[in-house]
Amino acid sequence: EVQKHSVHTLVFRSLKRTHDMFVADNAKPVPLDDESHKVKMAVKLRTEYGSVLHMPTLKENMREKGGPATGDPYGHKQYSGNEGEELEYVITGTHPYPPGPGVALTADTKIQRMPSESAAQSLAVALPASQSRLDASRTAAGVGEIYRHAGISERSQPPGMSVAMMESGGNKNSALVPKKAPTMPKPQWHPPWKLYRVISGHLGWVRCIAVEPGNQWFVTGSADRTIKIWDLASGKLKLSLTGHISTVRGVIVSARSPYLFSCGEDKQVKCWDLEYNKVIRHYHGHLSAVYGLDLHPTIDVLVTCSRDSTARIWDVRTKASVHTLSGHTNAVATVKCQAAEPQVITGSHDTTIRLWDLVAGKTRVTLTNHKKSVRAVILHPRHYTFASGSPDNIKQWKFPDGNFIQNLSGHNAIINTLTVNSDGVLVSGADNGTMHLWDWRTGYNFQRVHAAVQPGSLDSESGIFACVFDQSESRLLTAEADKTIKVYKEDDTATEETHPISWKPEIIKRKRF
How much is the pTM? Predict the structure, then answer.
């Protein structure tokens, strides 16, 4: 009959057997095998120094060494005609060795050769002592000495320290100088922004907002299926446009013609003539909700993006679909246009940003750094850069190839919208109603705003869907989930003394991804 043991006993026995098997060699270093070491060194010699083994050689000064050269301890073949002697390679160059100041050339030093250890030391002694070298020898031990005392080889230096040579004369008198870690430059001071007007009138979430080029009025689109036009100075309602049969997700006013373009979750893209306040064109083609649109600044082209994973390029006048930009694998949430290449930029729920070649209708670059959906992209009005917003980070990029600049971390929410003015104030608006204001250049977060919801609304209805600066950049408008439009302006009374920057030149820990 087989005796049954507990699992604990079986495991213990197994461990004991393993221990007994290897106990003889426990913690003993493996003895060095001469033959394998010879092979290893021969291979190393060929691979690392093979490119210089063919160079001509000179006899070493025997008196300097104090006798004939000792043989190679590893029995390596000498790669020259002078068998059995220690070899030295001639260095070809423009200047005789040494080039040290105040050291006359002798018959021996006129030949350009690799200096021996003793020759290098004698040269260092012969060089006139400079003040910097005297200071270094007074304040710091040699690198080799520090590491010898610590029992570490000179090669394995800590990454934070760099060896700065105090003189160029080949001496070993060097000091350990810590590398200066990159620090955030001091951000530009921006006055804080304050809420000064709340405009209500929509019966549903306000999803999108745009200011007309003349800065007289602005337009909003809402989940109540209407488009409303408001007077910018007074905040009074001027006009309501009906026609969409579902939530209006995007509006934009043309600077080249008296047209307003809108798109919505009803798959429709409409062109409104503002002289007659009527729809004059429809752009058919998207297979699902249209989430955003933008106009090209220099040609009559409209770009829309949709939940069908595509962006479409439309000819404004003929209503023709010029290109279908396909490549994203999930809904395209945002699209932006510019005159310079790349002319179209899209951000998607597949976590990527794509920069498009408008002429070919193909992707130029795909940026995959974000870990979560990219719902917002904004182009800087003056710099050749742009920013993208995602729940993981706001990232800044450089055109034309989408080179990464920096992360703006701290807005830990679903970022629905970004906008920036030419003064370098970047605004990010989030799904939880928070709004962060950043200095574009340094990525410093100088203000955080969480405005109260409209009376009668739930706290959960706090959410910012869109934000935009007016044309003068003195007003900031936000479209919110409590059915209001909030207008902010700079605090005129604030100064750098009353609102100082709480900034420290801290070490930047910028993540690449």
Answer: 0.65
